[in-house]
Amino acid sequence: MALLCRVLAISVSAYYAWRKRQPSRRQQEDEQLSETIQRVHAESHRRYGSPRIHAELQAQGIRCGRKRVVRLMRRMGLRGKCKGRRRICTTDSKHKLPLAENTLKQDFTAEQPDTKWVADITYIPTDEG
Where are the domains of the chain? Predict the structure, then answer.
């Protein structure tokens, strides 16, 4: 320990005084705020990032800066979940059902009207899925 204190140019008694010192008021407030941030983050199912957590803290009457919330969340390793891209799947190609025969065979010319009909399946989102 004496070598370390000599290298840092501090006295041994100053080192031990530093070790016994209580956390500062700011550190204590950060610990309380960190617990609140963790609770809000858990209540949001880990979806909220720092802007929403900051807004929630403000709504609860807790005054703090957004950058402080960012710093504490980063220190705790908390991040909001991003929604994944929703992939629209309209066709199930991996089935064993028989396929309809291709009677048109890419010949779209018709000798008279109303003899060849084609259609397209278009995706239309609904509430039912």
Answer: 23-82
